[in-house]
Amino acid sequence: MAKKWMFFLDFDGTISREDVCFNMVKKFAREGWEAINRLWEEGQLSTAECAELTLELLEAGPEELEAFFKNTEIDVSFITFVNWTKGAGYPLYILSDGYDNYIKEVLHKYQLKIPYYANHLVYERGWGIKCLHTDKECKRCGVCKTELIRELLQPGYQAIYIGDGYSDICPAECCDMVFAKDQLARLCREKEIPFYHYRDFTDIQIILQNLLTNNNNTWKGIQNDQ
Ligand SMILES: [Mg+2]
Ligand SMILES: [Zn+2]
């Protein structure tokens, strides 16, 4: 029986080689952002609260940020992966608690057409965040990935999540299969969520193609660091 898979992907550090949002703050924010970021990582600040505090510290104008975003590079194995999912008819969505300002730029740069959901950076005398995909019940996310997956997942499809960071643990818990690295791998291990460890999209493609060839429906996940 053919697999019906739907892919949900984080952007920063997953598709992009580095975390664009984090690097933007590190490069352009005045002192004080690290403590704010730590509170967000600990779940004490929501994405919107964290962004509002952090963006006040940002010392860059729109042109500077635009130029910075243009330098973003992606994991090149992602392009092959996208072509593979398109060929096989697997829907793919980008769910990011970062900003669509750079996601749009990057997808355009690499000529990729993929639907994406993210927050938006606005500049009116200073920087601000517009959260367009919040969820009433979730107090944490700007873009509530879990809620979006519930909305987007079509009947009969398995949800596959691919990510690397803190904002990925909640959606990972609700998906059928998880590919994780870095912080997300650590969090999955802590919460005993089965996952495949990956380094790049080539790893993911190999694992999935193996599942197809062996017609293995009993996925239990593996937890390894190789
Ligand atoms: Mg990330
Ligand atoms: Zn949420």
Task: Give a quick rundown of the structure.
This protein has 226 residues and is of the alpha/beta class. It has ten helices and seven strands. Magnesium ion binds at residues 10, 12-14, 19, 163-165.
What does this structure look like?
There is one protein chain. With 226 residues, this protein is an alpha/beta fold. The chain has one domain (5-213): HAD superfamily/HAD-like (Rossmann fold). The chain has ten helices and seven strands. It has a seven-stranded mixed beta sheet with strand order 4-3-2-1-5-6-7, sandwiched between helices. A hairpin with a 1-residue loop joins β3 (116-124) and β4 (126-130). The radius of gyration is 17 Å and the shape is globular. 36% of the residues are buried. Zinc ion is lined by residues 135, 138, 140-141, 144, 146, 170.
List the helices and strands and how they pair.
Blueprint: E1 5-9, H1 20-28, H2 33-41, H3 47-55, H4 62-70, H5 77-88, E2 92-99, H6 100-109, E3 116-124, E4 126-130, H7 145-152, E5 158-163, H8 169-174, E6 177-180, H9 182-191, E7 196-197, H10 201-213
Parallel strand pairs: 1-2, 1-5, 2-3, 5-6, 6-7
Antiparallel strand pairs: 3-4
Helix pairs in contact: 2-3, 5-10
The structure holds magnesium ion and zinc ion.
Keyword list:
226 residues, alpha/beta, Rossmann fold, seven-stranded mixed beta sheet, 10 helices, binds magnesium ion, binds zinc ion
The percent range for strand residues is 15-25%
CATH architecture: 3-Layer(aba) Sandwich
Shape: globular
The domain count comes to 1
CATH superfamily: HAD superfamily/HAD-like
Please give the alpha-carbon distance between the first and last residues. 30 Å
Give the spatial strand order of the biggest sheet: 4-3-2-1-5-6-7
Q: What Rg is obtained from the alpha carbons, in whole angstroms?
A: 17 Å
Question: Overall mean pLDDT score?
Answer: 92
CATH class: Alpha Beta
Point out poorly predicted stretches. none
Query: How is the CATH topology named?
Result: Rossmann fold
Determine the structural class based on helices, strands and strand pairing.
alpha/beta
The string of secondary-structure elements, in order, is EHHHHHEHEEHEHEHEH
The share of residues in helices is 40-55%
Query: What is the tally of beta strands?
Result: 7
- Main sheet: strands, sense, barrel: 7 strands, mixed
Number of discrete helical segments: 10
Which hetero compounds are present in the coordinates?
magnesium ion, zinc ion
